[in-house]
Specification:
126 residues, alpha/beta, four-stranded mixed β-sheet, 2 helices
Length: 126
């Protein structure tokens, strides 16, 4: 049997706000709601299960997503149009830019709960 990631829980100030932010940005669907979770399904069947917890209990995490050039273009257009602060680097020293690491494109930005999100078109190491 192969091991696959099935789901992960992402703490949020507001699970609906975070799930809608993420699903809208990447053109994904909210898959289900169960108990305290609102799930967004990725193309590889993994779900991101957003759960509301008190803001002072959220530890910011980093989530990186491999996307196609077309998906990157569409998401980056939304990031730009909506004035979402973004950077070419994880240290946030290159504001308003994207990177071209490993021959692809990448961008970093924060979600509504201040998790560091990253979109890349080529995996690290090219």
């Amino acid at each position: 049997m192969s091991v696959e990631l099935n789901h992960t829980i992402i703490h949020a100030r507001d699970n609906r706000e975070s799930a809608e932010f993420f699903s809208d940005l990447l053109g994904l669907e909210i898959a289900s709601e169960w108990g305290p979770f609102i799930a967004v399904q990725l193309s590889n069947s993994v779900t991101l299960d957003f759960a509301t917890i008190p803001a002072d209990k959220i530890t910011p995490q980093h989530y990186a997503f491999l996307v196609s050039e077309e998906e990157f273009e569409a998401a980056y257009a939304k990031i730009s149009e909506r004035g979402i602060e973004h950077w070419a680097d994880p240290q946030q020293k290159q504001p308003g830019e994207i990177n071209t690491n490993d021959g692809g494109r990448g961008v970093y930005f924060l979600d509504p709960s201040k998790h560091a999100m990253e979109l890349i078109t080529v995996p690290y190491g090219g």
